[in-house]
Amino acid sequence: MSKQMREAAAAANAQAIARLRAAGLRPTRQRLELARHLFTGPDRHVTAENLHGEVVGAGIKVSLATVYNTLHQFTGAGLLRQVVVDAARGYFDTNTGDHQHFFLEDEGTLIDIPGDAIAVSGVPQPPSGLRIDRVDVVVRVTREN
Description:
Blueprint: H1 3-22, H2 29-39, E1 45-46, H3 48-57, H4 64-76, E2 81-86, E3 89-93, E4 99-104, E5 109-114, E6 138-141
Parallel strand pairs: 4-6
Antiparallel strand pairs: 1-3, 2-3, 4-5
Helix pairs in contact: 1-2, 3-4
């Protein structure tokens, strides 16, 4: 490994540690490995299975259950946003900002819609004692033939 690659890896590790600590999470080895895979590079949408395949392919030993648990911990800490497209499919989004999604049904792919590109109206008042946390919009699309 070249000096430049070692320095980049050290910087990614330091960023992952800082991100986890800022979210109130202890930077365990497995959390660090998963954080580096998730948060290095552009925002993206992953499933637990996809992320598990990536990290195992990179030579990291981690169980699928640990990946699921860690993704849910990251979501609870505000590092990820969970997007549920149906009862059987959920994605984890590294972009936690204001936005919605196109869902390509045939490909199982999410594409971000900027937050200011869509307006939601007519949202009813929640029952007494509850507040609206957010409204998620998933626009289902298919490719034109």
